[in-house]
Amino acid sequence: MVELVFIVPLVAGALAFFMLGRSGRPLLVLTGAVHLALSVYLWVKRPEALFPDYFGVTPEGLLSLIVISLLFFLISIYTQTYLARSAIQSENIFTGSMLLFLSTMTMVTLSDHIMVMWIAIEATTLASAPLIYTHRSAASLEATWKYVLICSVGIALALLGSVLITVAMDVGGVESALSFSSLTEKARGLDPTWLKVGFVFILVGYGTKMGLAPMHTWLPDAHSEAPSPASALLSGVLLNCAYLGIFKTHKIMVAAGLGGFSGMILIVFGLLSILAAATFILRQTEYKRLLAYSSIENMGIIAFGTGVGGLGAYGAILCLIHHSLIKSSLFLTSGNLLLGFGGRLISDTGNLIKEMPRTFVAFFAGFAGISGIPPFGIFIGELFIILGAFRAGHYVAVGLFLLSLCVIFGGFAHHAMRISFEESPKTVEMKESITLVWPQYGLLLTSLILCFWIPDTLYQTIIQAVTIIGGGF
Questions:
Q1: Which of these, 123, 1, 130, 129, lies nearest to 55 by C-alpha position?
Q2: Does residue 56 fall inside a structural domain?
Q3: Which domain covers residue 470, as residue numbers?
Q4: What is the DSSP string of 124-191?
């Protein structure tokens, strides 16, 4: 039953490549609905996998899976109208790639074997590359090749890191299956030197896919060239999948008594990512690239919180969930801006509050949420991370963290005010249909509700995920 969750979109994606014209659009929504139902079943029943050596239901995997499923379902509804209003060649390739992308991301969340995880993350690259090249321009071709090449180099380093962990097993004389759960149980017997080296390679490798600086260079180009529904998945979901590979390896490090080593490296890469985002956001000229650098910032925040541990690890998971919801909403909203204003430059937009009032509500609420303004969940997550960093004595690191967040907020706010309230160079005549705005409202409302009320089952799952790395209250 566990494997069925990624087999369904895999089969649907294969079928979509042979469907002509617009016939693949309903398949997106239908598959999204079935996938969401199956994900909820997994959440409630927690069944055993048919191949337990390779797949399994883990707390961190379940959190990512339910977010993926909800996002894809709402994005698929938005995509129906978006495809009808935009010139996209070969819709069957687009819809087929979207469904295969869903299948591979789902496989990542359910992978327990260290090599199956690697295969699944590599498969997400292959499935999503055609989405970036959808518009078939010179810029999209360049962005696609950059994405494939940089991420392939990164994934090769992650493969080397995975092999080095097996070396740590051999040197330590440990007999264990190559599953994350088994390696975590027997981590104390692994050779610490080889384990440290393996973690560094895995962090750099999967960190490339996650968008951590300085390996982030593919991300702004890919996000800006991909159609908005694909950008929403790339930012809201794909980055989380890469983080899962790092998180599961960090669990092994903590269980081996090397959490201080891996935690400090995560803190350094997290700060580098936040500082890089702060540098580029200030002078951004395109709104989709602006959102892409915001994703780099948030991945840095999540890495930083995970490295801090304690309250910080709990805050990192909150940021992971809320970033997915809010950033996906913002990328869908960027699709409305592109349809309405006809360009990706911030200077091509303006007076959104009057030109596209429904889109303005989604955009401005998304800006408030992603900037960490209360009561949205990213504010709560960042607060826990800051408190956790102070508790752990990382005073210099948390000072840089706070300074960078202030700079990023100032830069993002400047661009958001320009888009929302300054004079528009053109009059928008696009009709804001319900399906172009209510998916964003649904994502933002979900984020807002989770700020005031977290279901006990969700809270317990988060606690189970972070307890093993020393997280929680």
A1: 1
A2: no
A3: 258-473
A4: HHHHHHHHHTTT--HHHHHHHHHHHHHHHHHHHHHHHHHHHHHHHHHHHT----SBHHHHHHTGGGS-
Quick one: tokens of 42?
Answer: 């997994």
CA distance 215 to 39: 32
Identify whether the C-beta of residue 164 lies closer than 8 Å to the C-beta of residue 201.
yes
β-partners of residue 111 are: 55
| The pLDDT of residue 472 | 61
Residue 420: burial class (beta carbons within 10 Å; 0-12, 13-18, 19+)? middle
Distance, C-alpha 28 to centroid of its chain: 20
State the Cα–Cα distance between residues 257 and 188, nearest whole angstrom. Answer: 7
CB 5 within 8 A of CB 49: no
Mean pLDDT of 257-266: 94
- In the chain, the number of structural domains is 1
Nearest to 199 by CA among 266, 110, 152, 153: 266
Residue 118 tokens read as 């690697």
Question: What value does the mean pLDDT take over residues 149-173?
Answer: 92
pTM: 0.95
First to last CA, the chain: 34
